[in-house]
Each structure stands twice: as C-alpha cells, then as structure tokens.
Amino acid sequence: MRIRTKITWMIASTGILASLVFSVYVLIELVEQPYELFDAELEKQTQTLIAALDSTVDPPRIPERMIPYFEGLFWVRIFNDHHEVIYSTEMTKLVDLPLRQQKKGYTINTSIPENMLPTDGDDADDDGEHAAFRVRVFSMRAGGRDYLVQIGRAMDRLDEEIRELLITLALGLTGSTTVLIISGYLVAGRILRPLAVINRTVREINDRTLDKRLPLGPNRDELHELSSSLNTMFDRLHHSFRQQKDFLAGAAHELKTPLTIIRLFFEEMLGRRDLPAEVRESLACRYKTLSRMERLVKNLLDVSRLELKESFEPRAFDLPELVGEVADDFATSLELAALDFSIDMPDRLEVYADRDMIRRVLINLIDNGIKYNFLKNGRLRLQITVQGDHVVFLLHNTGPGIPADELSRVFEQFYRVEKSRSLAHGGSGLGLTIVSRIVRLHGGHITMESEEGAWARVRILLPRS
Questions:
Q1: Order of strands, edge to edge, in the sheet holding 145-154?
Q2: What gap in Å lies between CA 234 and CA 206, rounded to an integer?
Q3: Among 41, 221, 277, 386, which is least packed by CB within 10 angstroms?
Q4: Structure confidence by residue, pLDDT tens digits, 297-331
C-alpha cells in the first residue's frame, strides 16, 4: 500500500472515529432531552393540580375551570392516603397505565383509539392507534393530607422523530466520511509533495549529473534534514567520482610522453638494416603491442575529458563537408577491405555542435564498421536524414552482428563482443563508449540494432542546435 493511501486512511479513520463518538453523544443527548422535558412538564402540572385541589370537601375536588385542560391533555389519577382514587380523567377509562412508584419517569407503549391523537391514520389497525405514554408518580401533601398522583401524557410521534434523527445523523456521518477521505487524500498529497520532488531529483542524479542537488524547503523540518543529508552524501560521491576521473585523466596524460618516446625508439630501431631478421620480427611484434597501448591511453584520455566536459566547443558547420573529409581519410582502408561503401545525405546540412567531437564519432563508427565487416562483398552504408529539429545518423554494415542479449552492453567501457577479433585489430572496447558519451554530451540518443550473423546498425539522434 502506498504511503499516501496509508496517510489518507489514518486521517479518515481518526476523523470518522471522532465523528462517530460525537454523533453517539449528540444522539443520546437529543433522545434523552424530550423525556426530560416531558418529566419536567408532568412534575409542574402535578404541582399545579395538587395546589388547586380543594381539600375542604370530602372527597377533595378539582376546580371546574381546570378540568377541561387536564381532560384534553393528560392521563391523571389521584389517590388519597387510603389508596382510593379520588380523581381521574376520562382518558383513564380508555387506557390503563400500570402504577410504578419510582422517582424517575417511565414509558408505557400501548394502544388508544384513533380519535385521541392527531395522526393521519397511517399506522392505525383494528386495535387502535399505537402510542407511547410518559408516566410519572408523585407523593405530595396538601391541606394536611398525603396524596399519590399518577400522571401521564402521550408522546406524539416521538419514535418517528428519533428515527428521523438517526437518519440525519447517518447521512451526516456518511457525508463527513466522504469529506474526510477526500481531504485526507489531498492533505497526504501535500505532505508527500516534497518527497515526490526528492524522489524525482534522486532519479535524475547519476554519474554524469552528480552536481545536481535536492532543493531545501524553507521549513527546517524532517524533510529538510533528509534533503540536507542526501545532499551531503552526493557531495561526497561527487568528490570521489571527480577524484577518480581526475586520476584517470592525469594518468593517461602522464603516460603519453613515455609511450611516445618508446614508440620513437622502436621506429628508429625498425629503420635500421643491420639487425637480424628475428630481432626485427620481435621488435615489430612489440611495436604493435605498444601502438595498441598508445591508442588505449589516448582513448582513456578522451573518455576522461568527455566525463569532465572539457574542450566542448559547439559551433555551426556544414555536416556533409565533414562527412566527406572523414570518408576521404578512410578511402584507402575501405579499398583494402574491399567494402562497398555508400553515403546518402543532403547536399548541405548545417548543425550546431562540436565539430571535432562529431568527427570523432564518424571516425569511430566507420572504423568499427570496417573492422567487423569481414563478410565477402561486404557493404557499409551511412545515411543522414533530418527529422524535425534532429539529425538522424544510420550506419548499416554487414558482418557477424551482435547477439541480442549483448546489445545493451556494447556502449559500456572495455566491453567487446568478439574479444579475439578486437584484440587482433587493436580494439580497446572504448570506441563506442566514446561515441555514446559524445552523443549524450550533445543531448542526443544512440541505439544499436542487429541481426546476429547478418548485420548491425547504429542509430544516432542528434539535435541540430
């Protein structure tokens, strides 16, 4: 489960629990309130009734002026100290309510004739209208005598009101749950937004973009500390990678001079005619090894320069003119390899890039095409087209091809598909690495396609500017 979902459910669950507790409390209060009001009214009416009771006569009587009021609204029985009924309303003849001598009121569910309550008759049946009576029993003293008063009143539609209250609370709880889930999801998204920025930035940081850093928010919270710690880690990694690249560049540069001196010595010795044949043969073999080492050092130096982005000088130039120059340089090699080499490109095509680097790309690609195109009547075709704001290079050559499981590794440093043939031709496994670095340095994209045993094709997509 995603963190955003977890936070959403935590916020929603907490809010729902709080809403549920509040709803239950409100429900209890609202349900008890009508009973409390009924009990207070019954107590008040009982006091009024006892206060108006005429105890000078035997049995005591209720004043005539008060009888209509009590007869219409209340169920009343008054008992004297001998538990004899001295007064009762007409409703007592229709409904019999049990006498319970307790301090609190109690509710009696019974049925009464339909004409006693103002109802629409929907719930009526053969036995009459179902109703609930709230009843209280009071022991009171008036005129020197003790009386027991049982008084009740019908609670019109109280059950329906309670049901409506329950429905209202349920709807409110459902609505609040929906609002809590939506707001929780939005709040969780806002909380996690800095984490999304951190995650996106971390994915963008690699060995070529170690100079990028995570943005630090204005609030010095836990996310600020996390970003600061990650930036510190990236600083250490950047420093370590920089040291490695500087070491590689420095070592390759320092090796150039002694290798050049040794190469000149070998050339001088090979130029002598007084050496025995076996010595000359041994020197020629060592000279080849030295040449391969010298090319390797040169390639290492080129890779390190590309990593450090040194000597990157883009400018506008005519691409077909550069391709023609490179093709002329390889004319002899192509002739010796007996390859059918063709170029398909526009007459003029201006691009904005580093001319020397693009030249290096063409040299490495054509050189690889010649080395690994050993089929009889082999073909090598370079096609350059324009697609929108990009230039597309397609170099197709016949040859052994590349296994499908190795296509993704051909641009790795020192990786060679056919190691024996690479060594025979002085290959170091850095040619395509250099091409890939140059293309990416220009903001382009390079891919390799192949059919094993038949052909290989390099595709380069390079911005024109």
A1: 85-88, 75-79, 145-154, 129-142, 106-112
A2: 10
A3: 277
A4: 776 666 666 665 555 678 999 999 999 999 998 88
The CA–CA distances, whole Å, from 354 to 74, 102, 315 equal: 105, 103, 6
pTM higher than 0.70: no
- The values of phi and psi at residue 138, to 5°, are -125, 140
Residue 126 has pLDDT above 70, yes or no: no
pLDDT at 288 over 50: yes
* 312-463 maps to CATH 3.30.565.10: yes
How many residues are present in the chain? Answer: 465
Mention every residue, 6+ apart, whose C-beta is less than 8 A from residue 295.
Answer: 426, 428
Banded pLDDT at 421 (limits 50, 70, 90) = very low
The amino acid at 411: F
Distance CA 343, CA 337 (A): 17
DSSP, collapsed to helix, strand or coil, labels residue 456 as: strand
HEC readout, 200-221: HHHHHCCCCCCCCCCCCCCCCC
Closest CA to 437 of 331, 312, 350, 255: 312
